[in-house]
Amino acid sequence: MLDKLENDGYTIKLSPDPKRVVNSLDLAKRDVDTAGRMLKEEDYDWAFNIAYNSMLQSVRALMFHLGYRPSSRKSHVAVVRFTKNNLGKRLFNMPGQDAS
User: What is the pLDDT of residues 25-63, one digit of tens each?
Assistant: First the structure.
């Protein structure tokens, strides 16, 4: 499946990059903390957007760790498909969820 993501233009293969992993995790932590503050202020739209960005950065960290990065033009879709490929049934095949 990782080869298919690469062949379809969603990901680009590179060497694992610990520095980019740490940077993405730092950004994810910053964003999730900020989202928490936005929730306390009842600013739900911004909290959602910032939490979403934290998710993107977290998966990017996994991608960098495994030697991939999302392509520029399909980055959000690449992150979701990469997550489904690597976390699979634990995340996407929960009871009551559509597995497509």
Answer: 999 999 999 999 999 999 999 999 999 999 999 999 999
The amino acid present at 97, given as its one-letter code, is Q
Here the tokens at position 51 are 């939490």
**One-letter amino acid of 71:** S
Instruction: For tokens 């490929």, name the residue.
Output: 85
Beta strands in 1-100 (DSSP E): 11-13, 68-70
CB atoms within 10 A of CB 57: 20
On the CB side of 31, how many CA atoms lie within 13 Å of its CA? 18
Inform me whether the pLDDT recorded for 91 exceeds 70.
no
**Which candidate, 23, 28, 10, 20, places its Cα nearest to that of 80?**
10
Q: Has this prediction a pTM greater than 0.85?
A: no
